Amino acid sequence: MAVDYMKTGVPARLSRTLRPYKWPHFMEKNRAKEDTYHSRKILGRLYDEVERVDFNPAFEMSFDNRILSAYKLDQSMLEQAYELKKEYDSAVRRIMAQHDIKSDFEVWSTFALHHSREVGDYKFYEEIGRLSASLKDRFRARCYEKVGSKDFNDIGPFVSAMYTVTAEEVTTAVEEQRQRMGKVDVATVPLMSFPWIFQNVLGKIANYPSKGEDSSGSGAVLELPNPPESSSDEQRATPPPSTSAYSTRASVSEGLSLD
Predict the structure, then answer these.
(1) How far from chain centre, in Å, is Cα 18?
(2) Has this prediction a pTM greater than 0.70?
């Protein structure tokens, strides 16, 4: 009847007798306890078997030296990559704040472990997929504009610079926190997903370094300015940044093996 409404003009009506008065726990309805029940049927049992695992960042994993030492990077290119990373991080944080997403790897992968639930899961994943794709396309275009080419020989060094400034920023923050507090506060670690908008280029650099490889293996280090101190209220209001889930050695989990 409902699908024929446009032809018949007769609406389908759900009577009160057909409306559920209690919901099974696996549907996770935000309702009073008396309005839900613990289902013992197969869907409820499967739901109970699922283990919820907290995301534990592997900060002990280092960044890939094959990418860090692939090119001789000048300070100008490193500074351009760093400025673009700041713009990218700001855009990602806006998405995280809008949808109550806890890390930028969830934005990058579109696999959100938690979101605001203002809309249903289906619409949310459509929306986050659109936002993530648009974000990557926009900043890839900015990178091509900076380099003036899409050729690997031209974009490769810039992607290596993106990876280098990200590695320097994250490594410095992690080491400082460990020395000061003996542990790492995930909420204050810089975002890491920026270079992974070119994940295929990263893989190509790691496996097939260009002729411009730095034979010294020393890599390049950008002298980053000290970030401005933010109040505790600002830190609480800003969704926590990502972790070293983006380490190249961990990229196998994203379907891209660099080894």
Answers:
(1) 42
(2) no
